[in-house]
Amino acid sequence: MKNIRNILNSRFKRNGNFFMELTKILGFKPKHIEFFKTAFTHRSMNLRDGEGNAINYERLEFLGDAMLSSVIASHLYQEVPSGDEGYLTKMRSKVVSREHLNELGKELNLIDLVESKIPAGQFGDNIHGNLFEALVGAIFLDRGYKYCEKFIFKRVILPKVDIEKLEGKVISYKSLLIEWCQKEKKTFGYNVYEDTGNDDVRHFSVKLSIDQKIVAKARATSKKKAEEKASKRAFFAFQNKISKMI
Amino acid sequence: MKNIRNILNSRFKRNGNFFMELTKILGFKPKHIEFFKTAFTHRSMNLRDGEGNAINYERLEFLGDAMLSSVIASHLYQEVPSGDEGYLTKMRSKVVSREHLNELGKELNLIDLVESKIPAGQFGDNIHGNLFEALVGAIFLDRGYKYCEKFIFKRVILPKVDIEKLEGKVISYKSLLIEWCQKEKKTFGYNVYEDTGNDDVRHFSVKLSIDQKIVAKARATSKKKAEEKASKRAFFAFQNKISKMI
């Protein structure tokens, strides 16, 4: 560790500013600055530790990617109780998409902190996302999972993760289901009937059939609500087929 | 939450034993038993909460998989400083392979705790791994990342993750590199010379060429060590090509 610290300190041009600028991005003071220096060292610097291992941000990308995936997974798990495994996986991949990570890295101007022998203009677009991942990896090494979670919450989830938008702005599951049935040339029908039972309030039940087969049932305080509820259930039952359409 | 607890309590046949058997597997007492009951509820039980969301272990698999991936990533990051991103990703996928997870689930006899309407004999092999993932997901919800990490360390990393074995029992990088060159019909040569410089101890340097091009250099206290070091560097430089062979 000491070895790496010395190598990085001697090569890092902006030692003074780096700490201040980094603290602003992180929202806390880093404890082990060398993790962050590694996160901003490009492979063109050709740095190696005493064992000949490369010092640059590429391995930290691997770590940061893993932390992003698990923090976003736990957020989606709690926020989207109706989504099954496949659905959650798909939503997560939208959040941690290359495009999205590049956007995040750009907004924080991470590229300004990079030490590299290549002129900044020659980097491709992916460097922004790669630096963002590496930064998350460095936060994990410096402060552990909790800080990582907080940082991702502040920088990714709060400003970027709009569950409804991710779900493809699904406002009515009924219209979505009907659209799908029409496209796939399937017949469908909502069989609604009053079903108040022992309740004080009037209730309705609905049986939703597709191709003459009942695929979902629901019960609610209005016809419309019951139909929407049944459509949502059918949507999640068929989601792998339907979601190709969205 | 209370709602789910009631549904699960009324359906779980083995309430008494479940807590004891689970505590034995976990190595700690669960705080919110309903997370673990969900982790052992098969979809054939057809349980739903008040909103109509399914209660079974499938969503917890998604969460557990994410936690396993990040804990294993951070372990490998620290234990294999010479492996680059691609290499670490590959090693991780060996650890969290379907086969491996099934083995882990089987060893803990997780299937004995499942509540299902399907006879145990009719489950495929993957249920073992799925239950293991779901259990990890439940640990995360119950106690957070640290406990998850401890559990994975005790149950996966300590007994199962042998870095050298994962690396494909690479004992000599030199022999691996030579084998590859021969297979690919590439010429190679180790140009070794004494290079003690200002050191007190005798040192040797080596230039390793493949197809007449120098691909790696190294310096060490013996010819053999220098050759092995250079081979290792070349191995990691070419690892995507070479690893297809292993």
Automatic annotation (TrEMBL), chains A, B:
Cell location: Cytoplasm
CDD domains: RIBOc
Residues annotated for Mg(2+) binding in this entry: 61, 130, 133
E.C. number(s) listed in UniProt: 3.1.26.3
Similarity annotation: Belongs to the ribonuclease III family.
HAMAP family documented for this protein: RNase_III
Role according to the record: Digests double-stranded RNA. Involved in the processing of primary rRNA transcript to yield the immediate precursors to the large and small rRNAs (23S and 16S). Processes some mRNAs, and tRNAs when they are encoded in the rRNA operon. Processes pre-crRNA and tracrRNA of type II CRISPR loci if present in the organism.
Protein name listed in UniProt: Ribonuclease 3
Name of the gene this protein is made from: rnc
